[in-house]
User: Fold Ubiquitin-like protease family profile domain-containing protein from Oikopleura dioica.
Amino acid sequence: MSDSDDLMCLSLKPGLPKVWDLRKIIRSYVQIAISRGEETKLDNLVKHIARIYDGDQRGSENYMLRLEEAFRLFELEQAKNAEKLKTSKPLEKNGNLTEVDLLTLNDREWLNDSVINEYLKLIVRSSDRENIAVLSSFFVEGLLRDKFEKTPDLTGKYTIIPINLNSHWTLAIVMFPEYSITYFNSMGDTLEVEDQEMAWKLVNYFDKKYPVPAGAKTSSWSFKVYNNIQYQTNSDDCGVFVLAWARAWLFDQQLLFYIGSDNNQMKKLRKIFQYELKEDKLMKGLFSESFSKKQLKAMERPYGDVPESSEPKALKRKRKIIL
Assistant:
């Protein structure tokens, strides 16, 4: 099934883009089911779509026929790709990734967990700061199912956490000295029901494991949405935003606002991230080259050093969510 054959799914939920196609939704459902050890069934796919869109289309005969056909074609495609996956070689410089993993960074593709997790680990390894940590994308997934992944001691550290809810990538950064969690979402700063549940569980986890000491400026952990950013204009680039935000936050926070402000920028970033993962090394200058001269000129304003014990200046403008 090629991109030109994509079957378009009716968008029933206000605010969601109408370009989400059945092929990608089916693929994301299969990935989730496999990660949970569940059998992939058409009925479960319908329930998965009903969670994303406001309504169950089971009553629409035409819709169900299209969905069943798309699912059948996808299963055939998966069977053909199974042999490719078996023969896919690990990368020479990063054995945790394969050539197939890197293909998810091609244009219009959705990034998988392996690419997200390995790139975030790469940028943390490339930093000379000892107070930065990263958790895998499976941490929040386990948290939502009340299955707690073992984590290192995060006391006093800024912790980067990638999150995948309903096939959409977002980013949370734990600000330990401030006892706050800052949330980045390329679909907007409104928290849907799933986001609210995730936020509550995340705050509750840190409240219990890392309670705020007596005498601190706050009595409990808070969850804040950072809204001084651009938002995605398609259904494909949320994972790219997450990687770009994490890198900019760690190395050059002034870039945060300009990520996604150029239509061609995401394509450039995909190629950069693909190249850097293949080389297992951040390449100097490549990231900033994806920004236009006008954007880079705007970033020449004075920018002082940020004390490690304080919250980065670029994260000051945000909205507090009352849980």
Summary: DSSP finds eleven helices and six strands in the chain. Confidence is low (pLDDT under 50) at residues 1-20, 302-323.
